[in-house]
Amino acid sequence: MTKLTAKAAGTFAIAPTPFHDDGKIDFASIDRLTDFYAEVGCNGVTVLGILGEAPKLDAAEAEQVATRFVKRAGKNMQIIVGVSASGFATMRSLARATMDAGAAGVMIAPPSNLRTDDQITGYFKQAIEAIGDDIPWVLQDYPLTLSVVFTPQVIRKIVMDSPSCVMLKHEDWPGLEKISALRGFEKDGSLRPLSILTGNGGLFLDFEMERGADGAMTGYAFPELLIDVVRLSKEGKRDAAHDLFDAHLPLIRYEQQPGAGLAVRKYVLNKRGVIASSAQRKPGATITAAAKAEVDYLLSRVARVDKRANLQPQASAAE
Amino acid sequence: MTKLTAKAAGTFAIAPTPFHDDGKIDFASIDRLTDFYAEVGCNGVTVLGILGEAPKLDAAEAEQVATRFVKRAGKNMQIIVGVSASGFATMRSLARATMDAGAAGVMIAPPSNLRTDDQITGYFKQAIEAIGDDIPWVLQDYPLTLSVVFTPQVIRKIVMDSPSCVMLKHEDWPGLEKISALRGFEKDGSLRPLSILTGNGGLFLDFEMERGADGAMTGYAFPELLIDVVRLSKEGKRDAAHDLFDAHLPLIRYEQQPGAGLAVRKYVLNKRGVIASSAQRKPGATITAAAKAEVDYLLSRVARVDKRANLQPQASAAE
Amino acid sequence: MTKLTAKAAGTFAIAPTPFHDDGKIDFASIDRLTDFYAEVGCNGVTVLGILGEAPKLDAAEAEQVATRFVKRAGKNMQIIVGVSASGFATMRSLARATMDAGAAGVMIAPPSNLRTDDQITGYFKQAIEAIGDDIPWVLQDYPLTLSVVFTPQVIRKIVMDSPSCVMLKHEDWPGLEKISALRGFEKDGSLRPLSILTGNGGLFLDFEMERGADGAMTGYAFPELLIDVVRLSKEGKRDAAHDLFDAHLPLIRYEQQPGAGLAVRKYVLNKRGVIASSAQRKPGATITAAAKAEVDYLLSRVARVDKRANLQPQASAAE
Amino acid sequence: MTKLTAKAAGTFAIAPTPFHDDGKIDFASIDRLTDFYAEVGCNGVTVLGILGEAPKLDAAEAEQVATRFVKRAGKNMQIIVGVSASGFATMRSLARATMDAGAAGVMIAPPSNLRTDDQITGYFKQAIEAIGDDIPWVLQDYPLTLSVVFTPQVIRKIVMDSPSCVMLKHEDWPGLEKISALRGFEKDGSLRPLSILTGNGGLFLDFEMERGADGAMTGYAFPELLIDVVRLSKEGKRDAAHDLFDAHLPLIRYEQQPGAGLAVRKYVLNKRGVIASSAQRKPGATITAAAKAEVDYLLSRVARVDKRANLQPQASAAE
């Protein structure tokens, strides 16, 4: 596949890692999941992100999972590999191996102990020295989970200091003004063009697009919605974008529960027949019967507007 | 007004503290805000909460603000006073003074350094010793902002150890299973009946009611919506409750941005003619022109379903 | 007393706040404590610091305590008042009132939620706007307890932006290189002269002096030791300074236990006959019989070198 | 080597991981370091601890390093392997592989996001399920660095629920009362006998032994001191233990600077001729010329009492 560039746009799905009920990696479901993302029209997939239970995999498994996605995606989609690690040796190993296997780029999140602006910029400088400056990379800005706060100025410095940084995964919260600030930097010439894809479960995608985002990078179980909202917004069809977004918002909101959201997403993807099991590796949240019923109710309500949410109980995912 | 009991239910608005543009307290707007909450049908109002910029007031101001709400509410609504403080002397002073002035109860949040279960239960034991066990009080459970995590078992212990604890302000996130767990404790007899009102900006009110909440306690700028959803849900009109809730959800979601939400709420309340200025005391977030336009757009969309959101530019709030 | 300037040097004791066993403020012990600090030769006293249980006092009490120290110290010593607060209104009230009563300056610590360099510098800018730029103030840099990390560059910016900032209370840990960096800034002309007094319980005072500190500001129960080490170090008597310091180090180390150190200090000050009770206000740590015996043993060992540690059981502190 | 049991006592050195200047692992220095620990009389060595820069190694390196220590130690000392990891798969891989290679046991620290008592006990339950209950393991209690706070009751529950837990690495701060509490549990029969070795850089070893610790597990660059203090204390020679301890305390204190301590220790071990380079892998602290001179001065002062600190500049470590 082609390497990631600062022109990347559209929808990159954040992929969960499918497991069998016993905790083993389910490679067949990885294939099905990859095909699913390609079929609905994703531009790329980000694997081994926070949603992907990456820390629960050992080093060999991480490489196997990422490589499987890469091979299956082929030329259809770009695969970005989350390589965040507690040390640069591990980060480098995974980054080099998966890029060699054909990945389009890697994503790096900061360790949670960084505080000052200098600590943050210093960390990414060392990280890129470690993995090599020939690998296109995505900066993940996610204070709610990572506890590291980037000002727009710090993001600019990181990007300007590292030519191989091509994308920001934006999920500060609140974050709308940050997008405006960064696009303002581009206009005043102090920041080179940068792809900005937004996360936060899609909860603010409607306005993030209007503020200048290039697309979505998140794990909502209906990537079709992300794709449509991104497209409608780029076409200038504001009301249509919001109408569709609002129909899904109750479910988007429901998925966006820290720690619990993955269980909901795996439940829906399993219900859609994409992954064979909704199991997570330990330690992981489970989904109660009450929560399943709530999701089912939300799906039925979404389906009144968007037929794609009209799911039949899955029959044969694992067959 | 009557004292707060474990039978409290319905909607308690979390009130912002109105300031003039120069940062002085706007007592006339406190009166108008109190009247507004009473007119739309709130059962009570919580003042000096996190939303209320309480830490920015000095001790004398805090008492003045709370007392003003209490006096204006009279017998129409119950006023709960946030008395969280860095020390018990300050907490006691404010609690005793405002209860003497007629408040219905007080609300206490934990300091952010508490970690173990014993530290948490020990803190509340000492707090109640300090303020006196004759004051009905509300336990605030808000990990996202306060960094203190309560298990359902710890909440039960606090409640069972303190007969004057009558209510939980529930805003764990995610929190649906916690409501179910607490109601389960009541069923198995290990927890006495407890009023549970939910916060989190109302973002999960639809399902929180279905899980057993008694009502809402949050600062959404349209308390009418909270009141209606609580009522419809209690009447068993599930679809109607969700239909109305979903119409407001895009705005509820927009308000629920940490640090920025208060600016949105003050903007809307100002636009509704309730408070004379949307100013916050320093340090405080401001609302940009872009954000105002987004809120206006959201209001116009809500108004298609709920005419109460059809706001004219305010004309005369401060006259 | 004279106002604090950037030429301040020597030893400023951090004073505990004496309480009676029932938690009431013990004003007689404040007088005795003030006299004690003056008699042993302290240049100043810092009151209402973290050690001073400041958050446990209500606003009126805080002013009373600080004023009592100020009045008693008269022209003998400079009193610095800790005015850190959760809001600027409270900070301003205490700062103005105690400066009017004759305090030499105030000390400000940052709130623990500050992260980025801009948040930190912005906070102090607003704080000084709030209290007025005519009050000499001390910047407290204490990451271990306050969770806010200042780079030397950020300290420089705060100092250069605020002419009324005259002193750094340095207690970063580790912090030796930070002193060297700041003194280096002074040498290269990018930082104006600044008084640097060091905290951390005195644990690194020996080397902090050698790195360029102007003195000590901490609460070790033998301020005589701090005074002597500061003096010996300034006289260039390196070995003598270390010899004396090392004799006290086992006790300095013992006091420097987070949360527990205050109990040790109050125990020793009570034993020395300075304060009438070692009680802390709730919530506070107590000192066990085992710990008391350990402190007594350490005192007896210090006394082999420094006779001032040869304490008789106190007889009449409160008489 | 024999498996670790609850009878373990004495001194277990926490080993740094030696690197060449270019960041490659220095296996020859591992051998020399192992021999050194054996020669001075350590009972065991803990490798891949926090001090050991474990997160900077990739999975293969971690296994190689631990195995090298194990092989070299042979029957002379017990090797404990730090297996803390962000996921159980990685933890299990390293634990099984190193135990197969002959390690005596493993050490597990909690991830920093654990808050409630239930989260903590649940984590260790799952960890032991993952690695297998046939591996003797050490519980690391280190709130200052790990942000997880264990009450004595929680430690007891973990120990009583997991028969393979044989040791506590105690480095709560303050922690003396915790040792007393745990020994009290043993006396009242609610806790089975448990080996308690203490860390915190040795800063409180003198009194920790008197409170009931079985020995030391820390990385002070003179393990001889730890060994002697543990021995003297067990022999009841209190004054002698303190005299020796106090002579080293200025250096112990100097080493105990978060983030900077490792640089000091590697500097001293290099100076002692044990490791060939004081290099750390990135990101790592360096030691300035000023700090080296301070350490040299401290060594010269220790050497007045303890000749073993009389170091000549190393000549031939790497030869």
Tell me the β content of chain A: 5-15%
End-to-end Cα distance of chain A = 30 Å
Question: Roughly how many Å is the radius of gyration of chain A?
Answer: 19 Å
Largest sheet of chain A: 8 strands, parallel, barrel
What's the total helix number of chain A? Answer: 12
Overall residue-averaged pLDDT value of chain A: 95
Shape of chain A: globular
Number of strands of chain A: 8
Summarize the amount of helix of chain A as a percent range.
40-55%
Secondary-structure element string of chain A: EHEHEHEHEHHEHEHEHHHH
Give the structure's gist in a few sentences.
The structure is a homotetramer of 319-residue chains. In chain A, 45% of the residues lie in helices and 12% in strands.
Task: Give the helices and strands, then pairings.
Four copies of one chain form a homotetramer.
Chain A (H helix, E strand, L loop, with lengths): L9 E5 L12 H14 L3 E4 L11 H15 L4 E5 L5 H13 L4 E4 L8 H15 L5 E5 L1 H4 L5 H10 L3 E6 L5 H12 L7 E4 L6 H7 L3 E4 L4 H12 L3 H18 L5 H11 L17 H14 L17
Parallel strand pairs in A: 1-2, 1-8, 2-3, 3-4, 4-5, 5-6, 6-7, 7-8
Helix pairs in contact in A: 1-2, 2-3, 3-4, 4-6, 6-7, 8-9, 9-10, 10-12
